[in-house]
Amino acid sequence: MSNAIDVEDTVDAPHSGMIPVFNPSTEEQIAEVPDSDQAAVDAAVARARDTFESGAWRKLPAARRAEVLFRAADIIRARSDELAELESRNNGMTAMGAQQIIKVANEMLIYYAGWVGKIHGESAPLVSDGLLGHYETFHTYTQLEPVGVVGLIIPWNGPFFVAMLKVAPALAAGCSVVLKPAEETPLTALKLEEIFREAGVPDGVVNVLTGYGETTGAALTAHPDVDKIAFTGSTEVGRLIVKAAAGNLKRLTLELGGKSPLIMFDDANLDKAIMGAGMGLLAGSGQNCSCTSRIYVQRGIYDQVVDGLVAFAQMLPMGGNDDPNSVLGPLISEKQRTRVAGIVADGVAGGAQVVTGGQPMDRRGYFYEATIITDTTPDMRLIREEIFGPVGCIIPFDDEDEAIAAANDTEYGLAGAIWTENLSRAHRVVNELRGGQIWVNSALAADPSMPICGHKQSGWGGERGKKGLEAYFNVKSVYIGL
Ligand code: NAI
Ligand code: MG
User: Domain Aldehyde dehydrogenase: where (predicted)?
Assistant: First the structure.
């Protein structure tokens, strides 16, 4: 094992075996982490439960809790180079991408640290018809209470950021957490446990458990002493989690897949639109839940946009995590590359044309070429399934209604993009698109204050913003007879 990273100092949970961890840019094993078994899950949940019931964290004064979270943000800032290096080695993302991930994760933490103590209940003046036929007067109020022990299950794309998207609001609300990172990318999540401890979060409030989804993840999801699961990942596993959560009716936040459309009208600023469509498709090599992989282009500009996107895809340098010029990194694993190649092959067998790309790269690492495809039909896997690779399809349309109908012809509803200089058209199409996050003349913009709530089969509930914090509270209404 070369460049081994010692995780033993951060992992002391009981476990039954070890999971090898690889660098997707080189295919080298860089670490191994425990494969946590049922006993490890039970122990982590028990630690979280003890701290929750004792109030070691949730009953601290708000100012103290905020101070601790801001201190964690300072530690992350001070260690950002080291964290970015680890993230890029483990996930394969470019050095630049990893710096950005650590930065936006920290902005998320700072955003939620700022909410501590600023979200609370309401009071309503209440006089009601009493049971005995005379008016009763009450003092009423609602109280927001942390939901309890929360299981957080995250995927391999943007691991440190997606972990923070859940840990930060959970801690801000006063919950205790058990975080299970993806088996492919556990390394920065393990650092998170260490960072929060150093910042002053009491031991046992943040627990990180490494392990596979089908075992460790499933045990956490089914655990009778876990009050809520927040999950990001595939729609298929989202469905399994819904079933597993039925046992004790856990609260659920599900951020699932997407198959997001981009609609480009012939009045768009084409230079910007082509670059925006290219980035919306290729950022993270397409391993992004909001990837706009169905690109609908008005017929008059279709040829020009195909040429532009092909040139854009060919221009972006693809390379390993240690290559400073690289803009596009590898896919996470050979399994994922095989999946992407299979979806492309199915399309080609059905008559789709690969205009550029369409092959694994001839080098070490799980690289797959940036790929632009035309001549698809709406029933192809290329159009229906989340690909999670650098593969986009360009489809011509004639008028606005046709574009809207095609864009909405999907079981997903996570995101969408519109490129037009016509203000009325932009608003009309925003109103018609079914998705939790719509960009007009922009690609991939995101801010901690703006929630993303999957419509249709893209999820339940939302993350980010005030809504993302409220998801970690139970509401209690209190009536005091006067
Ligand atoms: P996945 O949904 O299987 O994995 C995500 C997380 O769920 C991981 O931590 C995994 O260990 C855990 N998990 C898996 N099975 C579980 C179970 N039965 N109970 C509890 N936790 C479980 O996603 P995977 O296999 O890594 O990727 C497959 C496809 O899913 C991708 O090609 C992509 O299309 C989609 N995906 C979508 C994501 C998104 O952000 N929307 C993120 C990751 C994957
Ligand atoms: Mg899976």
Answer: 16-478
State how beta strands 371-374 and 391-397 pair: parallel
The DSSP code sequence of 248-302 is: TT-EEEEE----EEEEE-TTS-HHHHHHHHHHHHHGGGG-STT-EEEEEEEGGGH
pLDDT of residue 56: 98
- Say what the pLDDT of residue 50 is: 98
Q: Tell me, what's the pLDDT at 306? A: 98
CA distances from 72 to 65, 389, 472 (A): 11, 33, 20
One domain for residues 161 and 92? yes
Split into its structural domains, the chain has a count of: 2
For residue 206, the CA-to-ligand 1 centroid distance in Å is 22
Name the residue of 234, 235, 381, 452 to mutate for ligand 1: max ligand atoms within 8 A of Cβ: 234
| pLDDT tens-digit map of 59-82 | 999 999 999 999 999 999 999 999
Assess whether the C-beta atom of 234 lies below 6 angstroms from ligand 1: yes
pLDDT of 10:
44
Tell me the CATH number at 169: 3.40.605.10
